[in-house]
Amino acid sequence: SSRAPAGSVSAESCIPAGLRLGPVPGSFKLGKYLSDRREPGPKKKVFSDAVPPVFQVRMVRGELVDEAGSSALEWIGLIRAARNSQEQTLEAVADLPGGQIFYRALRDVQPGEELTVWYSNPLAQWFDIPVTATPTHDEKGEERYICWYCWRTFKYPNSLKAHVHFHCALSHGRPFLHHDH
């Protein structure tokens, strides 16, 4: 399987809670290339004009822009999937099932902080992504997440959820949640 380059997008200035980015262009496959390891890749800084003027920001028509002034459509695909809720700064949301997908800031994102995203619960259910993952503890007492189909072990809950949805050969044809699309 070919891997997308792992990128990272960080805030150059404070990004206020509730700010929406998007819509996300193309087919939505958040988490498809997620792994337990952080892989180095291209870095990009973004600016917000919806902040107090103490920060050096670039204002372009009321939206977040990168160093080159490009809109979110140009770089939103570089935002990394969050491996767990502690590192998550954005959630993927849709106004209606099957509608356009946006990223929404869960809290104020501080300058220098990386933007990472994961599914909101309603969007996860829409895409048949597991909403929860229960940890077990290995012999060293560290939390681990085990695939309930193939028994592969993961360090982070979202790595397990992405594996079950995109990669586990034993889970295909068996949706995690039963619901109507």
From TrEMBL:
Q: Which SUPFAM superfamilies match?
A: SET domain (SSF82199)
- Gene name, please? Prdm13_0
Can you name this protein?
Answer: PRD13 protein
For molecular function, the Gene Ontology terms on record are:
zinc ion binding
- Residue intervals of the SET domain: 1-120
Per the UniProt record, the lineage of the source organism begins with: Eukaryota, Metazoa, Chordata, Craniata, Vertebrata
The cross-references to Pfam families, in alphabetical order and at most eight, read: PRDM2_PR
Instruction: Output the GO biological process annotations, alphabetical, semicolon-separated.
Output: regulation of DNA-templated transcription
Q: Any idea where the C2H2-type domain is?
A: 145-167
Localization per record: Nucleus
One Gene Ontology cellular component annotation held by this UniProt entry: nucleus
**Keyword terms, alphabetized:** Metal-binding, Nucleus, Zinc, Zinc-finger
Reading the lineage from the top rank, the first entry is: Eukaryota
